[in-house]
Design a protein that fits this description.
Structural class: alpha/beta
Order of helices and strands: HHEEEEHEHEEEHEHEHEHHE
Strand content: 25-35%
Shape: elongated
Low-confidence stretches: 1-45
Number of strands: 12
Largest sheet: 7 strands, mixed
Distance between the termini: 29 Å
Mean pLDDT: 85
């Protein structure tokens, strides 16, 4: 499948990224802004026979699956500044998943990425289909239904002298707090920085526009973020930025987190997403957002790597 993005050498990033409206959304974990929460999937006669029957009785009794999502991680989930509604890859996938299972999926948005796994773990949400890396250490808290492969990359102003990963030694790189990326930068630093100058890490709110602003004002020399989110911004902005070194793909997967006390729900979500792979709706959604490169053939469970 073709991608709408230009080649990596021609890509440019902008500091004026998508305006993500706050809209009073909070990290309440169980609650949501009404105008956003109405973006949900309702049964529409497109269900796969038998899936609904396999749901836990508690979910059937409630009549819906509560899905916690961040509201500021394009292209996976973000607030449309015109309609004030949630949109993105995960939103489209969850809507279709609700149709396949035959149950409403309600979106409970938060601006805090760090709330996702704890909310699912404690039962305040049933799942978190929201751009979350499936990591072995997180599997002790929740189960993951893996549906997308991702990588990481460094980005710097085009005028900078940075050329490869080794050129970042002694420099400051900004990335998102509460993510696995600070640890990843430290691992890269240990591999490529043979002298005493390691890559310094600045952690801020896990929103790419915030990171790029830190680069623009000189607090950091480069930013480090997911290939998928960064590539999306590359297609939307005009300020001159460049990729530094090659993108890094190490078999990392995004997974929908599911409460460990709901294994039946986990299995239904896996079967539902696999049905979407087979009927083509999964690939259509990824193509819509220019993310075909992240497609997987098999929807797996807890297959994330460190």
């Amino acid at each position: 499948m073709s991608s709408p993005f230009r080649s990596p050498r021609a890509r440019r990033l902008g500091g004026a990224t998508l305006l993500i409206a706050v809209l009073g959304l909070t990290a309440a974990c169980g609650g949501s802004d009404e105008s956003v929460a109405e973006t949900k999937a309702s049964p529409s006669g497109k269900a796969v026979a038998g899936l609904y029957d396999q749901l836990p009785q508690s979910i059937k009794d409630k009549g819906r699956i509560d899905n916690i999502v961040v509201n500021n991680y394009p292209p996976f989930e973000f607030v449309d500044e015109k309609t004030t509604e949630l949109q993105g890859i995960d939103i489209d996938l969850a809507k279709r998943l609700g149709e396949v299972i035959g149950i409403e999926i309600k979106f409970n948005p938060t601006s805090e990425f760090t709330q996702l796994v704890p909310s699912v773990q404690t039962g305040r949400a049933d799942m978190g289909l929201s751009g979350t890396l499936d990591k072995p250490e997180r599997q002790g808290s929740v189960d993951f239904v893996d549906y997308f492969k991702t990588g990481t990359q460094f980005v710097a102003p085009e005028a900078s002298e940075l050329t490869d990963h080794a050129s970042l030694c002694g420099k400051t790189v900004v990335t998102g707090s509460g993510t696995s990326y600070p640890d990843e930068i430290e691992k890269i630093s240990a591999e490529v920085c043979t002298g005493g100058d390691k890559i310094k890490v600045l952690s801020v709110q896990p929103v790419l526009s915030v990171m790029l602003q830190q680069v623009k004002i000189g607090r950091a020399d480069a930013a480090f973020w997911a290939t998928d989110s960064t590539n999306y911004e590359l297609s939307k902005n005009s300020d001159k930025f460049k990729l530094v070194g090659e993108a890094i793909f190490t078999g990392k997967l995004y997974g929908a987190s599911v409460n460990k006390d709901l294994p039946e729900l986990r299995d239904v979500i896996q079967k539902g997403l696999q049905a979407m792979v087979e009927d083509g709706s999964y690939s259509e959604i990824l193509k819509k957002w220019g993310q075909e490169v992240g497609a997987v053939d098999q929807i797996s469970i807890n297959k994330g790597v460190a």
